[in-house]
Amino acid sequence: MQKKVDKIFLDKKVKKFEFDQKVVPVFQDMILRSVPGYENLIKNISIITKKNVAKNSMIYDLGCSLGACSRKIADEVQSEKIKIVAIDNSEQMINYCHENYSNYKNITFIHEDINNFKLETASVVILNFTLQFIKRDLKDQLIAKIFNALDEKGILVISEKVISESKEEELFLQDYHEFFKSCNGYTKEEIDRKKLSLSNVMLLDNIKTHERRFKDVGFSDSCLWHRSYNFVSWIVRK
Ligand SMILES: C[S@@+](CC[C@H](N)C(=O)[O-])C[C@H]1O[C@@H](n2cnc3c(N)ncnc32)[C@H](O)[C@@H]1O
Question: Is the pTM of this model over 0.70?
Fold first, then answer.
């Protein structure tokens, strides 16, 4: 894994955020310095998957970026009988995975838009900070498609940055998150430029909206199992 330091937003020119060739080499550094609890999440998503994966079944990692979840699951489950399909619509991300992770024989990396991809029956589906990049009018449809693809005991593991229901809490958490990033070496200017670059690209919901969506498409139960500042993760049961 390349670990180049993320200096993208030292550049004063701000453009709409994309998961492009500039982001690929710095992605791991960017996500570790920006998402509190990320490493713990990846480790535990692999453990949750190990507990729930059915024999000879499919695992989907949707919006896989550099395949961190998929690779951790493959390492943790260590079975040739599972098949992991990791999908991303960033050609550069998937090219990187093809070039660097061909030793992971049970992961198939696919360049595709997850809104168009036809899912086969699966026991575990992972959306780790991906739904927040899906257009608002397509979110319900994607979650419903995942519900329909899951087998009887299947689970969705979904992580998202969330907005708060009260303005006070939102400002409080934003302040702490920005402090987290500054402690990880980002300047105020970098933080402000990235926020601008992500506006209208990262489309956040609050916890209630997510949980209502899970219920509306038919999921029986959801459990918020991880939270770090305004970054949360659920296990959602069919
Ligand atoms: C924050 S990253 C996800 C991080 C990754 N899941 C992990 O655990 O390291 C969001 C990813 O979703 C991908 N993405 C956004 N919209 C997508 C779509 N419609 N289809 C497939 N991938 C998409 C982006 O290209 C990006 O790589």
Answer: yes
